[in-house]
Structures are given as structure tokens and as C-alpha cells.
Amino acid sequence: MGDEPLAAPTWPALTEAEAASAVAATWGFDGATIEWRSARPLSATVGVRTGSERLVVKRLPSALRDLGALAEEHRFMAHLRARGIPVPEVRTVAGSELRAAASRDELGQHRCGVESTEPDSAGGSHADHRAFVYEVHRLGEGDDRYRADFSWTPFRDIEDAAAAGTMLARLHSAAEGFDAPTRPVRPLLASMHSDVIDAFEWHIARRPALAAFLANRDWRTEVPDLRADLTTVEPLWTHGDWHPTNLLWRDHEVTSVIDFGLSDRTTAVFDLVTAVERTAVDWISLRDGGPANVRTDQITALFEGYQSIRPLNHAESQLLPDLLPLAHIGYELSEIDYFLTIPQEPRNAEIAYNDWLLGHLRWYETPEGHNLRALLHDLATR
User: Where in the chain is the domain with CATH 3.90.1200.10?
Assistant: First the structure.
């Protein structure tokens, strides 16, 4: 997030006893040995082995996702799985329901932004399992080849980019018929907006902490006037966070799709431009004054893979270049709100606003940004 090479973890690490308790409560398996831990700073995730089974345990603060919020994602995952998309099965449990045998000491006592009401020996308060919910996923088919990569980095090669485009098109075709409404306002969601100013006003009206954060900023003069006409395309539930670290692989084939935390009712074009935003521009280099390193070869391969399965219609093709600069804004406003309200990290909220929100919007107004939008128009209308 800042000048450090790697951000410190936001949440305390999952203990083996905690993971075993979540596995027992969801799948009924006894014992769990941790085989790997996620390096991502916003995540508390481990891979475990229990007997012959391998599972993935994710712990989330209930202020971020409670069981009802996770059920929204899991219903969509089940719909896709029933229509042939390789999405691992998942079960959930509230921290308050973990087995009684797992004592508070076994599950760990850690200081962080989510607090229980029980004092610790130093007179403060600690975070315990009752403040969290747990997802326990069956391990997806394929290799997690991008696990060690930074999020928002390119594909390894154009073959992976093409395969990701093909699977994204398959997912969009399978998503048709899933008629759930748009998700309620929550932290860390990738909402879709047709206008920068309207996006700010929409989130300010629904996120009090964000409203206070922006109250003394002249944000209306800081953001460019960017718009896209969303009335011409049909709504669709989408993944919302399409990049290679959320896919499992075998050679150059996508064998599993994971991490539906940003899924919502948007539109297929929104998911497609999100994939470009997440993988085609070197935002970390740009933040540090370096080049954008736009991967036109991978964008081309992604589009060719996508259109080989689900050709874009005329309205979608026309919308693509206008929607690209807006793809990130809803998520980033929700991330600022997340930093302010859940881990309570105002410095990260400042970085998110200046570097990842304003920085992205302004780059799309540069010649390089205009060239990328022109490329999307050409690819979509071939």
C-alpha cells in the first residue's frame, strides 16, 4: 500500500487449532495440518490437509462478511457449478459456533481491529474467533501457479491470457438465468457506475465514514468527468475480480475459478474491462513514477479467447472503451470505507484515495490511457 516492499498482514494468522475447528464444524473431518499460508495482507487464509482431503480455510471479520453476505456469493457459485463452471464447493460457519473443545487460548488471542468484549491480561481487548466467520473450500482442481505473485500483475504469457478470456466467456454464459438482485452496500464490493461524480455521491450517501473522509476535500475538482451509457446492455451476475491469482491452472488451461468475494449483479462488459484493469497496466510502476508497461499482447489474447466463446454484441462493443476507466472506482471507494471502518487504517485509506483511485482515473486521461481505450474499441469491433 505504501513505500514498503511488502505490506504487513492486517489480520492475525490462522492457528492450526482454529483451522481444524472450522474444518470439523463444516465438513466433519478431524484434524487439520496447515500446508501453506496466503501472503496477501488483507487475507487470513491457509491450505490444510486432513487425512486424504485438502481444503482451504478463509477467516473473515464478520463486519466485512457475515453468513448472510457469504450466502449471496455461494448461491452464485452453486449456480455456476451446476452449469459446468469448475468452482470448488464451500461451507461456512460462524466463529461463535466453533466446537466448544477449541478453547479461546487454542484459537489464539491477537490484537487487531476486530475486538471482543473480554479484556486480556494487559487490560486491553483481544480479537477472538467469535468476531469472525469461516469459509472452508474444497481444494480446486489444478495448480495455484500465481499464488506467490502480486495481485494485479500480468499473466505469465499470452496462452494464459487467452485461456482466462475463454473461461470468463464460459462463466458469463453460465451466469445467465441467475436472477438475484444487486447486493446490499458492503465493504469491499466492486459496484458498477456510469459516471464518476454520481459514483462518489452514491457511495457518500451510503457510507458515513467515507462521507466524513471526503468532507474536507475538493474531490469534485480532482476527478475527471468520465461517463459510460449502461442503459444499452443487460445486467448479469459476474465474478468482479478476474485476474490470474483467482484461477487455478493445468498447463495453459483454467481448471478452477476461485474467490467470488466481489461478485455482484453488474454486466458482462464490466467483468471484461475489470480483467483488463487488473492485469494489463503496471499500476505499481506508475505509482512510483515508472512506465505503465501496457500488455497489449495479453489484452489481445484475452479478447480473442473471450470472443471465441461469447462474441460481444454491438452495444457491448461500443461500451467497452468508455467503461474501462470507471471499472475500478466503485471498488476503490468501498476499499477506502473498509480501511476506515474495519481495520481502522486511515493511512491506507489516504493511499487508496490518492494512488489507487485518483491515480487510476487520471492515467486514463493520458495519451497512453487513451491508446488503451482505443485498443479495446478495435478489439471489440473486429
Answer: 158-381
Q: 289: phi > 0 → left, psi -120 to 50 → alpha, else beta; which?
A: left
Q: In 3-state terms, what secondary structure has residue 44?
A: strand
Residues 6+ apart with CB under 8 A from 99: 21, 24, 25
> Cβ atoms within 10 A of the Cβ of 124, count?
9
Strand order in the sheet with 53-61: 33-37, 44-50, 53-61, 132-138, 90-94
Pairwise CA distance, residues 136 & 139, whole Å: 9
CB atoms within 10 A of CB 280: 25
C-alpha cell at 136: 472452508
* pLDDT tens digits, one per residue of 99-127: 543 444 454 443 333 443 333 333 333 34
Residue 261 scores a pLDDT above 90: yes
Distances from the Cα of 277 to the Cαs of 216, 272, 286, 299, 350, in angstroms? 29, 9, 13, 10, 21
Q: Give the DSSP H or E segment for 144.
A: none
Which of these, 159, 160, 155, 172, lies nearest to 309 by C-alpha position? 172
CB count within 10 Å of CB 308 equals 12
Distances (CA, A) of 79 to 60, 90, 154, 172: 23, 13, 29, 12
Say yes or no to pLDDT of 129 above 70. Answer: no
Task: Look at domain 16-138 and name its CATH class.
Answer: alpha beta
Count of other CB atoms within 10 angstroms of residue 217: 10
pLDDT at 110: 37
The whole-number pLDDT of residue 99 equals 57
Residue type (1 letter), 46: V
Residue ranges of the chain assigned to CATH 3.30.200: 16-138
Could you tell me the end-to-end alpha-carbon distance of the chain, in angstroms, rounded to an integer?
A: 38
* Homologous superfamily in CATH for domain 158-381: Aminoglycoside phosphotransferase (APH), C-terminal lobe (3.90.1200.10)
pTM: 0.91
For residues 81-119, one letter each, b for 16 or more C-beta atoms within 10 angstroms of the residue's C-beta and e for the rest, the string is: bebebbbbebbbbebebbeeebeeeebbeeebbbebeee
